[in-house]
Amino acid sequence: MDIVELYRYFAKFVPVKVLKENYVRSGAASDAESIQAEVLADKSDHRIETIGDYLFLGDADFMLQRLRNSNKQLLMVDSDREDYTPNSDNGSKMTIGLTVAEHYNRSNTDVVSELALQNKCLETLRGILKRIGEDMDEGCEKFYIEGDSYEIRFFDAKTLNGLIGYTAFFTITSPSYE
Fold it and tell me: Are 100 and 170 in contact (CB under 8 A)?
């Protein structure tokens, strides 16, 4: 599974301004600059302007810190494993958790405002899943989604600055010929 390709794919939903904030020239990774240039050059018309933070498969402590400090709607792509079989059409399988969440003030007792925020996150997530399905129908060359449905769960992170939203779970499969 080419995780750079996955990063690029999900970046097409993120505003360019947010993508620029994800890269700080540290000189550590030699490929980082070219990855960033490709992501910024993508003329995607699928960007969702309400997304203010993009987190992708990272160090758990780093991701937790970013989640705790987020006060914007965020898109997070996470995975806990990859199954790999060399030289196979279905050789690489990765279970993905795709989350859209937003900060909600826990001291607020306004049920309708919380409902509206949850609905906004769920609709954003469903819109992304719809676009993923359309891309799969059009023949995405790098990977495909197993099955035609997604499991969606409520994301309630009280310890992470009161984020609420939804996470969709699905498996991405790609060939492993090298």
Answer: no
Q: Residue count of the chain, please give it.
A: 178
Within 10 angstroms of residue 150's Cβ, the number of other Cβ atoms is 17
One DSSP character per residue, 133-159 reads HHHHHTT-SS-EESSS--EEEEEEETT
Which H or E run contains 127? helix 111-137
Q: Is the pLDDT of residue 32 over 90?
A: no
Query: The whole model's pTM is what?
Result: 0.87
Please state, for a pLDDT cut of 70, what percent of the chain lies above it.
90
Assign 72 a pLDDT band (cuts: 50, 70, 90): confident
Structural contact between residues 84 and 92, judged by C-beta atoms closer than 8 angstroms: yes
Dist CA 43 CA 46 (whole Å): 9
Residues 6+ apart with CB under 8 A from 67: 55, 74, 76, 157, 160, 161, 163
Is it the case that residue 24 has pLDDT exceeding 80? no
Reduced to 3 states (helix: H, G, I; strand: E, B; else coil), residue 119 is helix
- Averaged over 31-60, what is the pLDDT? 88
